[in-house]
Amino acid sequence: MVTTEAPASPSALRSAWPALLIFAVLALVPVVAPLLGAGSYALTIVSRIMIFAIAAVSLDLILGYGGLVSFGHAAFIGLGAYAVGILADAGVGEGLVLLPAAMLAAAVFALLTGAISLKTRGVHFIMITLAFGQMAYFTMTSLSAYGGDDGLTLWAKPLVAGFKWLNDRSAFHYVVLALLIAAWGLCRAVTRSRFGRVLRGCRENEERMRALGYDPFAYRLAAYVIAGAIAGLAGALLAIQADFISPAYMSWQRSGELIVMVVLGGIGSLHGAIIGAAAFLLTEELLSGVTEHWRLIFGPLLILVVLFLRGGLGGLLGKIRHD
């Protein structure tokens, strides 16, 4: 069971300031963007950033704190998206049903595949998560009833308690922001709890944790399921925003992009995962307008960040405040 630490101390509040600053800036976007003449476009881009930030935060939970390099994390995003699409196709249009269903579908998949994957370590774990991710990908491409390779279209936005709030870009922006804060808060609570300390201990010295009476497999599996459920939520939101679900959501390339986001923001830094997602997607948006081979430019930039910013962009933000 996850037990959080005692009431927030001044040091805990200080460590949370980068995330609080990020959330404050994101909250101002719907107000400031129209003044700059970039209303709907800015809201679309920023909402997409927040959605992928939710997925990146979930990956950082198992990568940064558990040392689990998953190359199949995008499968959870795709399953969350398809859960929404399949239920919507069956006539379920209530968001308060669709979002939990997406999280449940991804959590069940994480539980089943994690129980097998976590029996392995290192490169073997990377390869088996990649294999499960590709299995999910090819399964969805073969389901012709739900579009196959062509994907699945959502013909209407889900309702929220019977209201069409998600049809409004600003309302959707704040819904996604609220869920991002909730995902960050949950992962922060997990990592700062005894559960999180045991998870980090298993990453550092598994044998010592066993000697202390802890079962590393159980803790890792629990973290893996939590991360899968949060990524499933991101997939559901991605489907709602785009009104479309594609098998490409769960491709291995998408999993690789999520790892890049975490590395770019700083591994083991939850607010860094948010910054990494923003940096990756904004760079993609800018460079793709210059050349379709934008990754050739982005690659060296990522290498420079890894070499000279050991804590990633998230660590750089902390250094700026300290200075």
Distinctive features:
323 residues, globular, disordered N terminus
Please give a structural write-up:
The chain is mostly helical. The chain has a domain at 38-248. It is 73% helix and 1% strand. The longest helix has 27 residues, at 216-242.
The profile of the biggest β sheet is: 2 strands, antiparallel
Radius of gyration: 19 Å
The shape, in one word, is: globular
The side-by-side strand order for the widest beta sheet comes to 1-2
Segments where pLDDT lies below 50 for 5+ residues? 1-7
Count the helices. How many? 13
Overall pLDDT level: 88
Q: Would you list the SSEs in sequence order as H and E? A: HHHHHEHHHHEHHHH
Strand content: under 5%
* Total DSSP E strands: 2
Helix and strand composition category: mainly alpha
Could you tell me how far the N terminus lies from the C terminus, measured between alpha carbons in angstroms? 39 Å
Fraction of residues in helix: over 70%
Transmembrane segments: 16-37, 49-76, 96-118, 125-146, 171-190, 217-238, 258-282, 294-313
InterPro entries: ABC_transp_permease, LivM-like
Subcellular location: Cell membrane
Keywords: Cell membrane, Membrane, Transmembrane, Transmembrane helix
Q: Can you give me a brief rundown of this structure?
A:
With 323 residues, the chain is an all-alpha fold.
